Amino acid sequence: MRSDLLFEVGETLALEVPLATGETLAARGRVAWVTRGGGDKAPAGMGIEFDRLSSQDRRRLTQSLRQLAMPARRKSA
User: Fold this and answer.
1) Are 55 and 34 in contact (CB under 8 A)?
2) Which burial class, exposed, middle or buried, applies to 30 when counting CB atoms under 10 A from its CB (0-12, 13-18, 19+)?
3) What mean pLDDT is reported for the chain?
4) Nearest residue to 9 (alpha-carbon basis) of 53, 52, 49
5) What pLDDT shows up at residue 11?
6) How many Å apart are CA 25 and CA 74, to the nearest integer?
């Protein structure tokens, strides 16, 4: 997740993730990694490991991420 506000690895977060459908997914997660970014490095961001995500919410999140990634795939083709 790209972000200007970076947390520390291990911090627990309460998240509201906007889905491509317009719905919002409420979830808890833990910061798994942090990239500070800058210069030639990757943009600043964090990896989030979701905690206790139901199988239904996991499917909804996966489907939403696939939809959001589609335009990026078309541009590179």
Assistant:
1) no
2) middle
3) 85
4) 49
5) 96
6) 27
